[in-house]
Each structure stands twice: as structure tokens, then as C-alpha cells.
Amino acid sequence: MYSHIKDQDAAVYAALEGERKRQEDGIELIPSENYVSQAVLEALGSVMTNKYSEGLPGKRYYGGQEYTDAVENMAIERACKLFGAKYANVQPLSGAPANLAVYHALLAPGDTVLGMDLGHGGHLTHGHPMTIPAKLFNFVTYKMKDPDTGEIDYDEMREVARRESPKLIIAGFSAYSRELDYAKFVSIAREVGAVTMADMAHIAGLIAGGVARNPFKDGFDIITTTTHKTLRGPRGGMILVRENEELMKKINKVVFPGLQGGPHMNNIAAKAIAYGEALHPSFKVYAEQILTNAKAMEAVFAREGVRMLGGGTSNHLILADVHGSLGVGGKDAQEVLDMVGITLNKNAIADDPRPANDPSGIRFGTPAITTRGFKEEACGRVAELIIETLKNKDEEVVLDRIGREIKELARAHPLSTSFVQEK
Q1: Catalytic site includes residue 217
Q2: Could you read off the pLDDT of 361-371 as tens digits, one per residue?
Q3: Which of 31, 156, 303, 385 is surrounded by the most beta carbons within 10 Å?
């Protein structure tokens, strides 16, 4: 692998080989990460990277677009089929630009947006004061009624919406482990005349696989998503519109020329391949296993008395209060788990008393290990090793033994090159 890079640039080759080995020998639990198929990797390194394709299929600004149009149309058609949408824009370079495009298509500076509070599981692009959207628009938030059950306070959401009159209401999260009641979002939005947008970056693959509720079925107007995470495609973004053609036209104009230049056609080709993989029957089996594996990890944390925000999980991720339960800060937990070969991320919990750079929690999930073929028993063992590591974070002999077991578990589950042949 990488033979041309090896011959031409030894330093870059060494970094690539080091990352390959890290991925093979370790266990990846960051919920927003996954592994792509060899076909997706080949598309990312294909000749499509050479081509400028500003505009939409059939409406490009440059010539020579026969094959770029073909591959982008494939991606659009497959995306719409996966999610039950009438329209799609597959050009956003990531999830944050996708959200920004929707904001600028719908809002004027100063308009109000209602989204989930970051401290209760929301996303930076839903109103964190350090982000560009928060400098342009007025973000107000809703929260969980009870962090130990994960129940959203929909009564409070309705009160905030009536008081603040948002033009856009967002359902979506980055660290929330339960399902949302999309029908309640739609009801509140209709009452105040708002557009509904579901940021499904984390659970798009679960929706595509039919194991999580599709917001479009409850009347949502827009879905934005990344294309990696549970969807298991290349790193990128996408915007879907349920049925409103005029809304899609506005969004298209913001994506280009308003926000981006030429789309990355190698990435769009990879998206088309990943959407095709997600349409294969084996993807539903994969999505089901993600949930089963997450429940297996939940069971271990519950048995060991470790507090989980939301009381557990209904999706692919778990947010655990390791400081409150085990006396370990999130930063230390992340670092010691890195040492033994388990990769996850420190994360704030609801109303966290600790600082953002060393919060109380850790966030982990099952998309990547499920891609590697981990089943319930192995996932339960990984959960046990997480807790054992944190309880023995200063015991070098124990950590060495755990590190060896992690490497054995990882090597027992080698990555497949083709996902559509999985049983």
C-alpha cells in the first residue's frame, strides 16, 4: 500500500503507515469515527480529484463534465432513496458548512434559531458563542428535563419557542444517547411558524438502516448530515429536503456560489459508493448490530455502577460520568485509555461543574468496532477493560496486560475491504 508515496516522500509514508498500524492494533470508540471500504478509499484517490465542477449537474460553469455529472447524479439519487427525500445537495464539504448553508438560505442576520443546549448534548454549530453562526444569528436553547433519563423538556421548548419566535428549530446532537420525539418538534414549529431542520450527523446510518426514526416521516423539512460516522462514507456533508423545491433552490445557491467553490468530485464519487453500500441489505444488519453492541456496553457500565447520561443508550453512543462514578477526570481517562489502545473522547456532561478541557465525562460508541465485526461479547469485554483501566490508571503492570488484550481483540477482528458482501 502507498507504494508511490513510499518512493517519493518517505516522511509522509511513515505517517500514513503509522496511522494504519494504529487503526489496526487499537480499538476505535469515538462515536463520530468509522472505517470506509476499499472502494471508498479508491474513489477518494481517483482521477476525479483533478476536475473542477462548479455548479450543479447539467449546469456547470466549466466544460468536460460528462462523468462528473454522472457520478453526482448517482450520489443524489441514492441519497434521496436512502432517506425518503425528494431533493439532495451532496456538495457540502462537511457537516458544519451544510448547517451554515441552511442558516443562510433561511435566515437574515439577527434571526432566531432554537437548538439543543451544547451542555445537554447539542452541537457546536447549533449556537456555541465561539462559532460564526452564533455571531450572525440569535440562538436560544432547549435542554433535557432530567439528565438521568434523557427526557427532553418539550414543555420548556414550547415556551421558549412561543417567547422567542424562532424561524428555525433544530433537532440534533453530538452527545445525546436517546431518540428525539420529532413529532413534538414539528408541532411546536408549526405553532410558531418555524422551519424544522434535523441535524442527523451522528445517526444518519441508523436512519438509513431503518433502526432509528426518520425525521421526514414526522414532517421535518430539512435533514443535514455528515457522511461518515454511522453512515460509513467519506468525510463530508449533505443536505436533504423532504419535498419543497423552492427551499432546495435557495439552499443550492448558498452552497455554491454563496459558501463554497468547486465541489470535491473525488469525495462525491466516494459518497455515491457509500450510499450504494448503505442501500445493500447487509447495511441494515450492520445498523442493527451497532445498537446491539451499544446495549452490551451499556449493560457492563450499569452493572459496575457507572453513571450514564440519559440512563444508558438508544443509539450508537454512551456518555459516562467517569469523574462522578470513578473519580477520574475526562482528560485523564482519555489519555490513559489511549495508552492501552482504546480511543475515545473526553466530553462534558449536562451542567458539568468541571472545565471544558477536563470535563467529567467520556463519550464512546460502536460504529467503528461494529464495522470490524465485533459482536456483543467482545463489546462487553471492551467495556469491562475501559472500567478496569480507569480503576487502575496508575498501575503499570495492569495497564500493560490490558494493552496486550486490546491488541489481541483488535487483531482478532481485521477490517474487511468490501462491506456489501457481509452476512
Answers
A1: no
A2: 999 999 999 99
A3: 31
